[in-house]
Amino acid sequence: MAKPEPNRQQLDRAAWIKAALDILAEKGVDGIRVEVLAKRLKVTKGSFYWHFKDRRDLLDAVLETWKEGRIRDIQKQTRAAPGEELPRAYHVIEVYSANRNRKGMMIEIAMRDWARRDAAAAAVVEAVDAARLEFGRRGFEARGMPPLESSSRSLLLYAYVFGLSLMSCGKFDADMDEMKRWIADRIAN
Amino acid sequence: MAKPEPNRQQLDRAAWIKAALDILAEKGVDGIRVEVLAKRLKVTKGSFYWHFKDRRDLLDAVLETWKEGRIRDIQKQTRAAPGEELPRAYHVIEVYSANRNRKGMMIEIAMRDWARRDAAAAAVVEAVDAARLEFGRRGFEARGMPPLESSSRSLLLYAYVFGLSLMSCGKFDADMDEMKRWIADRIAN
DNA sequence: CGCAATCCATACGGTAGCGTATGGAAGAAT
DNA sequence: ATTCTTCCATACGCTACCGTATGGATTGCG
To answer: Do A21 and A65 contact (CB within 8 A), yes or no?
Structure first.
C-alpha cells in the first residue's frame, strides 16, 4: 500500500542527501562522489543506484532540499517576530557572521561556487537570495523607510554578511567585535 | 650559461600557471588537472612534469602568482592617487561589482572556496585581504575618520563588494544601479 | 509456507587522471 | 661533427570513480 514512512531502518534518499550536504560543506560539489558517500554510509553504491537514477539525480535532490530548507527558514522568521525588525537585523548579522553556524556558512559558499558552473544551482541560489532580500526589505519598510532605501539596506546587509564569511574566516583585527557593531549600526540605522 | 629568457618559443612555467588560472576561474580548483591543461596547451604532460614537480607544485605557483599580482595592484593604487580617497572608494565598488572584471571576480570566489580546504590557499587569501583592508582603512583615515571607524568602513566596503559578487551575479531589482549608489554613499560618507 | 517486492552486495567494463620511465628532437657548447 | 643540455612525446601501471547487471537477503503479505 506504500505507506509513507512507518519505521525505516534502511537508508532512504534523505540519508544520502544529508551525507551529500555534509561533503558539500567540506569539499564542495566536486567532493560529492557516490562511492565516497557509500563508504561513509557503510554501504555500497548498489544502494545508491537503487534510490537515485545517477549522480545528477542526487545533486538535483540536494539543491531542492537546500532550497526548501532556506525558504522555510525565511518564512519561519517572517512569522516569528513581527514588529521586532531592528533586533532581527542584528540577529542576522550575529548568527551568520560568527563562527557559529559554520557548516551552514560553508554550504552557502559551496552553493555559490557551484552556481557559477551549474544553471540549476544558480537558479536555486537566486531564488533563495531573492527571498532573503525581500525578507530584509520588508523589515526595513516596516520601520518606515522608503522602498529604495529599504531594498538598499537589505542588499547591503546580506552582501556584507556573505562577504564577511568569505574573508578567510580569520580575524583581521583585535577590535573585530567593535567593528562588527559599528557596521551593524551603519546598516540598520 | 643559463641566460634568463632571450627568446623563448617553448612553454615555461608562466604559461602553465596562466592556463591554470583560466581554468580556476571556469571550474574551480578541482578543475585544474594536468592532463586537461596539457590538452589545452597543445602539449602532453611530459612537458608539465618537466616544469613542475607535480600537481601540487603548480597549485602553489598559482597561489604565489595570484598573491603577488593582487598585492602589486594594491600598491599601484596606493601610489596612484593620494588625496583622492573618496572617488577611489566609489571606483572600487564600480570595478568589482560590475560584470566587468568578471574573470577576476570568478578567481576571487574560486580562491576563497579553495581556501576553505587548503591551508596554503587560506594563507594567501588572508594576506591579500589584509592588504586590501589596510589600503581601504588608510583611505578613510586620510579623510579624517577615527581609526575604528576607518577600519569598519573598510571592512564593510570589501565584504559588501565580495558578497555582492556571490549573489548569483543576477539582478534582483530593476533599481539595482540606484541601490548600488545608495549603498556606496552609505559606506563612504 | 510461499511469493513478491524492497533494498543492498558483488562483480564488471569503462573513462579520467596522476606520476614515472624512457626515448627523441633541436639547439648550444666545445 | 660530436656531445650535452633542454624540452617534449610516448607508453606504462595505478587509483578513483561512474554506471550496469545480477544475485542474495530480508520483509510484508497472501
So the answer is: yes
